From TrEMBL:
Keywords: Aminotransferase, Transferase. One of its GO terms (molecular function) is L-aspartate:2-oxoglutarate aminotransferase activity. It comes from Saccharospirillum salsuginis. This is Aminotransferase. Coiled coil: none annotated. InterPro entries: AspAT_Ic, PyrdxlP-dep_Trfase, PyrdxlP-dep_Trfase_major, PyrdxlP-dep_Trfase_small. The keyword Signal does not apply. Signal peptide: none annotated.
Length: 426
């Protein structure tokens, strides 16, 4: 436990700094080499899906009689689209099963919206020289990279405990018709772990009524079934809300099996209105003759039994939860009774988002690296890598073992405390 820094005299602060510096030097000598950077499944998690290998056993016929080894089928295999429909909570007719990466599909969908338009040539975003995208912060760095790559200006909007600050989102859209998109990770958001409230989902579905007709919500439902416990909050179905609001064209939904089966060889899904799908497929058909249906078929067969997806995700949770619990225990022990840090007790996904006191994220990351613990670069959770408060750090504990997470968090909490005490001394 760290005493309340504001109550300490300068001499007491100096003594504390010296004690913490000694602890830091001792930790450095442990020669740790730990990595809490990217949210990847661990080897044990990947092992849960090893039965995919060889599963087809020479039977390459899909249910519809398609030889999956051959070209064709831009929409993907029906039985695999059914898996996507389960993940996305949408009718199978509205789901496309693509390649291995939802991020690729998001990039393609945003590029199509930008260059070609999602409702004909006049709707292309590039026709508006000031095309912009709303980015809830902290958020996912690779979403920001897509916007940056396309030259779409990013406008940060704050996250709240219920999702993006919807007053800010609605106000921005009312004031600026050049805003064409909003990024969302609605369940176990990357990195805050927040699940959007029903009210937030309802308001997002209404945005299509406030914004121009070319506006799209990029609903990246990457963690739709990735709960750590059975009590984790559910997410309202955005397309049900859109149907009620008459705004089905305003949302594009994405998911993948990257963190269900194999992160590098899963299947990605896009769910969208008929009109959006039609335009996206017209552009995709210039790009590919069809996706990897062999992989799609083995995924469909792997999850063919009712309830198998749920049971599989419970096995992931059993591996992930002790790692998350370890992070949360360290944070509670170190900062539960002081104001040196803030975080959310997440119930799913892959990340824990931690805020230091303003101005200390970069220094904490630097100190941790010095003691052998690699963290995601400070600022990565903000557009253009610029966290105006220099406070947010994303912790990704899935890959190291529980005892490695324990070691890494010992270093992390010490570095936050040391950086805070040094700042208080200035
Ligand atoms: N979306 C979010 C929010 C993520 O956190 C990640 C990976 O960390 C991805 C998408 C990547 O998905 P995929 O592997 O399907 O490209």
């Amino acid at each position: 436990m760290t005493p309340d820094l504001a109550s300490l005299s300068q001499d007491q602060l100096k003594a504390l700094e010296s004690d913490l510096s000694n602890q830091y030097d001792t930790l450095k000598q442990e020669g740790l080499s730990l990595d809490l950077t990217r949210g990847k499944p661990s080897t044990e998690q990947l092992d849960l899906s090893n039965a995919l290998d060889g599963l087809l056993g020479g039977d390459y016929q899909s249910r519809d009689g398609v030889d999956v080894r051959n070209y064709g089928g831009l929409d993907g295999l029906t039985e695999c689209r059914e898996l996507g429909a389960e993940l996305l909570g949408m009718p199978v007719e509205q789901v496309l099963a693509g390649g291995s990466s939802s991020l690729t599909l998001m990039h393609q969908a945003m590029s199509i919206a930008y260059h070609d338009g999602l409702s004909g040539p006049g709707s292309a975003w590039h026709l508006d020289k000031n095309a912009k995208c709303l980015c809830p912060v902290p958020g996912y760095d690779r979403h920001f990279a897509i916007c940056e790559h396309l030259g779409i200006e990013m406008i940060p909007v704050p996250m709240t405990d219920a999702g993006p600050d919807m007053d800010a989102v609605e106000k921005a859209l009312e004031q600026d018709p050049s805003i064409k998109a909003l990024w969302c990770v609605p369940r176990f958001s990357n990195p805050t772990g927040i699940v959007y409230s029903d009210e937030t989902v309802r308001r997002i579905a209404h945005l299509g009524r406030i914004a121009g007709e070319h506006f799209r919500v990029f609903w990246d439902n990457a963690y739709s079934v990735h709960a750590l416990n059975d009590q984790a909050p559910a997410l309202a179905n955005v397309f049900d809300a859109c149907r009620e609001a008459g705004t089905e064209d305003s949302v594009l939904q994405f998911a993948s099996t990257s963190k269900i089966t194999f992160a590098g060889s899963g299947v990605a899904f896009l769910g969208a209105s008929d009109k959006n799908l039609q335009h996206i497929k017209a552009s995709l058909s210039a790009l590919t003759i069809g996706p990897d249906k062999v992989n799609q078929l083995r995924h469909a067969r792997f999850f063919a039994q009712d309830g198998s997806l749920k049971a599989h995700m419970k096995q992931h949770a059993a591996l992930l939860k002790p790692r998350f619990d370890t992070v949360l225990k360290h944070l509670n022990d170190a900062f539960g009774d002081n104001d040196l840090g803030q975080w959310n007790a997440v119930e799913g996904g892959y990340f824990i988002s931690f805020n230091t006191r303003p101005g200390l994220a970069k220094e904490t990351v630097r100190l941790a690296l010095g003691a052998g613990v690699k963290l995601t670069p400070a600022g990565a959770t903000y557009p253009y890598g610029k966290d105006p408060e220099d406070a947010n750090i994303r912790i990704a504990p899935s890959v190291p073992s529980v005892s490695e997470v324990d070691d890494a968090m010992r270093v992390f909490t010490l570095c936050v405390t040391l950086a805070s005490v040094r700042q208080a001394l200035q």
